[in-house]
Write a structure and sequence with these properties.
The protein has 278 residues and is an alpha/beta fold. The protein has one domain (14-277): Protocatechuate 4,5-dioxygenase, Chain B, CATH 3.40.830. It contains ten helices and eight strands. It has a six-stranded mixed β-sheet, sandwiched between helices. Strand 3 (74-77), helix 3 and strand 4 (123-126) form a beta-alpha-beta unit. The longest helix has 16 residues, at 199-214. The chain is globular.
Length: 278
């Protein structure tokens, strides 16, 4: 068989997981310090640096749901060459000169919108949405070569957990097409609670509950995540839930099997976790 034939032959798709990851604080992985000691985010950085090696194959594309993009309806970015959105403030000047030139994938954006629409969910496309820091900051660490095409998907402004679980279920077929579905947020996100004496116990209690929910079979997982506000210290962990809702999309795409906690740390006294569905 000729080499030319082998090079022209389509590469088969390898089923990818769905992963919820913590994206840290601002451009934290590219600073000597942020919101605390210099090593605050080192464990999270090491987790992200090793993420690609845990995948079954290099993804054909990434579909990223960031806690930093909300629209009236689910909106997929169809930009071919997305620019970076430096949507943080008060950080050193060099953090506004970061680069991560991953390409977009307009065809995948259309596919995402089509799957959501077929499931009866309202959708839209954005021709020029770039990568906010919930996208480029963690993925610059995880995929520094920036070669894999990336499509971003907004949250729906309602932040309804059931709606986002349904979106994940609609998008699940993409996993069999070699697309890695990533939810980028924080399992604890209360900026005023860091380094407070009551925070470690409360954050751990919420983290234990959230991990139990993720590691449950369907339909218990959906019931727990839909009612996440009943969890211990839920409102303390998330005064506003936009950083938790990307997990709902990932869990919806995860199928019936339980998820797995694949990372945990306590930066500034607040427990955080990453989760994976295979």
């Amino acid at each position: 068989m000729s080499r030319e034939f082998l090079e022209d032959k389509p590469v088969p798709s390898v089923r990818q997981p769905a992963i919820f990851l913590p994206h840290g604080g601002g451009p934290c992985f590219f600073m000597d310090w942020t919101w605390g000691p210099a090593d605050t985010w080192h464990a999270t950085q090491r987790f992200l640096e090793g993420l690609a090696a845990t995948l079954p194959a290099q993804p054909k594309a990434l579909l990223v749901v960031s806690g930093h993009w909300e629209e009236p309806v689910f909106t997929a970015s169809a930009a071919a060459k997305p620019e970076l959105i430096f949507d943080y403030s008060g950080f050193p000047e060099h953090t506004y000169r970061l680069t991560w030139p991953a390409p977009g994938d307009p065809a995948l954006a259309e596919r995402v919108a089509g799957l959501l629409s077929d499931a009866g969910l309202s959708t839209a496309l954005s021709a020029n949405r770039g990568f906010d820091h919930g996208v480029f900051v963690p993925l610059k660490v995880a995929f520094p070569e920036a070669r894999i095409p990336v499509v971003t998907l907004s949250l729906a402004a309602s932040l309804d957990p059931a709606l986002h679980l349904a979106a994940g279920r609609a998008l699940a077929p993409l996993r069999d097409e070699g697309v890695l579905i990533v939810g980028s947020g924080m399992s604890f996100h209360n900026l005023r609670a860091y380094l407070r004496p009551e925070t470690p116990e409360r954050a751990r209690a919420f983290d234990v509950w959230l991990t139990r929910a993720v590691e449950s079979h369907e339909p218990e997982r959906t019931a727990m995540l839909t009612g996440w506000r009943e969890a211990p210290f839920a409102s303390f962990a998330h005064p506003r839930e936009e950083h938790l809702i990307p997990l709902m999309v990932v869990a919806g795409a995860g199928g019936e099997a339980p998820g797995t906690r694949i990372f945990g740390d306590e930066p500034m006294g607040a427990a955080i976790s990453a989760y994976r569905f295979d």
